[in-house]
Amino acid sequence: MIRTASKSQILRRSIATQAAPKPQITKLSNGTVVATESNPASATSSVGVVFGSGSAAENPYNNGVSNLLGHVFRTENGAQTAQQGFLLSSQVGRDFQSYVATSRGSSPSSVLELLQKKLSTGISDASFAASKDQVLKEVDAFETQDHAGKVLEHLHSTAFQNTPLSLPVRGTREAIETLEKADLESFAKNHFLASNAVIVGSGNVSHDELVKAVESQVSLASGEKPILKKQSSFLGSEVRLRDDTLPAAWISIAAEGEPVSSPNYYVAQVAAEIFGSFVASEPASRLQGIKLLDTIQEYHDCDSYDHFSLSYKDSGLWGFSTVISNFHAIDDMVHFTLKQWNRLTVSITPREVARGKALLKLKLASAAKDNASIATNLGAQTLALGSKPALADVFAKIDAIEVSDVKKWASDRLWDQDIAIAATGQIEGLLDYMRIRADMSMMRW
Amino acid sequence: MPQTFTSIVKMSDFILKSPALSKVVVPVAQQFVKYAGYRQLGLRYDDLISEENDIAQTALKRLPEDESYARIFRIIRAHQYELTHHLLPKDKWVTPEEDRPYIFPYLLEAEAAAKEKEDLDNLELVK
Amino acid sequence: MLSSRVRAQALIQTRQSVRRLTVSATDGSGKISSLAVKVHAGSRYATKDGVSHLLSRFNFQNTSSKSALRLVRESELLGGKFESTVDREFITLKATFLKEDLPYYVSALGDVIYKTSFKAHELSEVVLPAAKHDLAVSQTCPITQSEELLYSTVFRKDLGNPVLYDGVEKVTVEDVKAYADKVYNKENITIVGKGVNEGDLKRFVNDSLFSSLPQGTPLVKSAKPETYNGEARLRSVGESVASIAVGVAPEQFAQYELLARYLTSPLSELAPLVSKAKLDKYTNHGLFSLYVKGPDASVVASNIKKVVSELKAGKDISKAKDIAAAQLAVESEASFAPVEIKFDNVKDFKLGKFSYVAVGDVSQLPFADEL
Asked: Which InterPro entries does the record associate with it (chain B) (predicted)?
């Protein structure tokens, strides 16, 4: 019997919809790019600048400098901007860093004035010291408390060892301790250039007004766009930080994924969404249509897992992270998960792909909620791709993905490919690299 | 088609609905019960259903506490009498009125849920 | 004579069915919609301790027309997800989904509200383990524990009821069912849509089981609740928290809202000491609470003393007006219940009487009279 949950004609009754805002991009004569995603219905507006250099542009000796710059941005004159009603936010990624101010109303000029002032004037000793202190505290807290996050950073460091993507976004304690004000200033001088920047706006801000205001108010330093000396490349390898005092095992395993500009970017995302994520304590999560869950639930193999497809300019990671408190099940969990990955190449079903596509759409459409993160996202994508695709176009691309596309991608990129492994906690039961690597293919099916 | 609890119920409903069929089958069933002799050992029919499968295990887990206790008591008692080659005293035999299904509703529910999961796992999309 | 009476009755009936559910929506240009069904069924209305939490966890379980499994499987193929949360005022059922699937989700939510089966085995196999997990998670956080104690100290009953089910008072599946029958009625629920056309939503709600819900009485409370000042202490392993709370009448909401935002903004030199400060607003009353947290109880002790003494001396909080308004605007955009507060008349703040709770290494934490 064939049953279907696909949309019936009745459910397709007409629904009124508003046109989605399209990202607009203008390149000014002085080389500065302005991008907006305006939403006149919004009560707030975010304006900021995104630079195309993140932690990958750092080196092992100044690792954490972008993070520190972000902190300085938020703490310096914090009281003064707060009184003016600006909410400052900054974010560092591997390929970008953003400085955004959100305020009520829609006048971009006062925000731009603030940004220009912040970026052009030097850093005071007091705010540098306070920020450094704060950053060190946060790095320590991250290292000791956020085990899942730490494992993911180590996954990057082993997978991309000796190449730019290996550096942790927050920076290492060793590097941050030695940082001086001059390091921040020289990093800013080399990377905060007009050729490496996008001025972004989102929410209640009009593109034309912002362009006008940028032309008259913002002057970023000119110069050649900084280019990374080294390409990031993936290396199958592992790092284990065994710590039997911790109450669980945190494990991440990934193969090389797709770079942001890859034509298979969304195929990899759909593939990750097919296995999705799972939280054992959440009843609805246990009912999901994921074949892997049958095995996991019968033996309580893990507490939670999450599949990801992370993409950067040069490369990416496709894999999963899991938390396991049932230590005897570590091998089962890893083995059965990787066996399911094999199915992507040989026997993935149309239902599973349709499910992955639908959930990916949901995820992408509900990702950025507040204007500040919309602005940051817009800037990061504009820098990486030259423009941000409208959501409608992204949906069309996802809709066009067929089962055969997923199978082809998986057979090229996953089947019998090298993997990177990172783990911490009670991981005695995590078997050796070659055994896990062998699960990336099957002799027969 | 493999026999399921659902199919048993369906078949018996069909038989009971038709006067001609029930005239033949019901007396045979009664004879079967008589010769099976489980009532003389103090058991109810539902006590005999094989419990070594997921469906029955789920149903057993969901039995109300008193039902579950009574079931275990009957089974232990039957074992004891069987071991000593005795039957229960006649006044303690299970009467046809007492021999009512108590676990069947739970079995049917668990079976329906398992079937639904199977169907949804093998769902095919129709465009 | 007879026929006229019948007609009169019919007229009354139609009038009643005209009384509609409260439905509101704001449209958006995104690809996504979300719906929230807010039921005045939070812990303050609980007939037994924790029954609201269990009812919230029973949402999206089997209904008489659709099993929990089928709901999840259908919904994931459409690209949508469900969530049910509980707090002191509301049980909120929330669905987030792709815009074109509105009819499906309205009808699914109606189904859940109207036809959940409440089977005994679901309580023991699904609901209780999930509820137990929620409780365990909340007990690992000393701030959540402090908040719970502050509420029970200030309000004792009503808003002071425990939010989560802890098994101290036994709740059976019949209790949950009876509570559902009491709270799930037309007058007691509000449906809010985001990214939804209001006309569409109303149309689909009328076609769904929401329109078959019984008439009832709204449970919303408007009388001012009794409040008390007191102190509570709880020994526990882990970080220490010292916290204070003040019951707030609705006319003081602006002042305390601004205070909470001032204390956590860079404008206040106390900000580094205060881990969290907030005003919880309810229809008839509110609670301002402030938390000082740290691994070292002696540091927490000196910090809370400093914070309280400075607040007692009085603070000019008016300079935080703009940042508070900006924060509120950002939060309102993300929330289902935008709050509008005017800070124009607020100037300064002086702390009077308050309730105090210490959690953690309490031997090192001060008593209320030492503050």
From this structure: QCR7, QCR7_sf
Q: What is the pTM of this model?
A: 0.91
CATH of A237-440, one of 3.10.129.10, 3.90.650.10, 3.30.830.10, 2.40.50.140: 3.30.830.10
- What are the residue ranges of CATH 3.30.830.10 in chain A? 24-217, 237-440
* Chains adjacent to C (≥3 CB pairs closer than 8 angstroms): A, B
Domain at C231-370: CATH code: 3.30.830.10
ipTM of the complex: 0.89
Cα distance from C232 to chain A (closest Cα, Å)?
Answer: 29
Q: Could you give the CA distance from residue C277 to residue C280 in angstroms, rounded to a whole number?
A: 10
Of B120, B121, B126, the CB nearest to A2: B126
Q: Which fold has domain C22-212?
A: Cytochrome Bc1 Complex; Chain A, domain 1 (3.30.830)
- Maximum pairwise Cα distance, chain B: 66
Q: Do domains C22-212 and C231-370 have the same CATH topology?
A: yes
Contact call for B120 and C70, based on CB within 8 A: yes
Q: Domains of chain C: which residue ranges? A: 22-212, 231-370
Residue A242 contacts B, CB cutoff 8 Å: no
**pLDDT at residue A15, as a whole number:** 54
Closest chain A residue by Cα to residue B123: A3
Fill in the DSSP letter of residue C124. I
How far is the C-alpha of A50 from the C-alpha of A52, rounded, in Å?
A: 7
A393 contacts in chain C (CB < 8 Å): none
Each residue's pLDDT tens digit, A303-317: 999 999 999 999 999
Helix and strand element counts for chain B (H, E): 5, 0
pLDDT at res. C10: 42
Pick the residue from chain C with its C-alpha nearest to B110. Answer: C121
For residue A66, what are the CA distances in angstroms to A89, A182, C37? 13, 13, 43
Residues of chain B in contact with residue A340, where contact means CB-CB under 8 angstroms, are none
Task: Report the CATH number that the domain containing residue B86 is assigned in CATH.
Answer: 1.10.1090.10
Whether A11 contacts chain B with CB within 8 A: no
- Closest among A42, A37, A40, A8 to A24, alpha carbons compared: A37
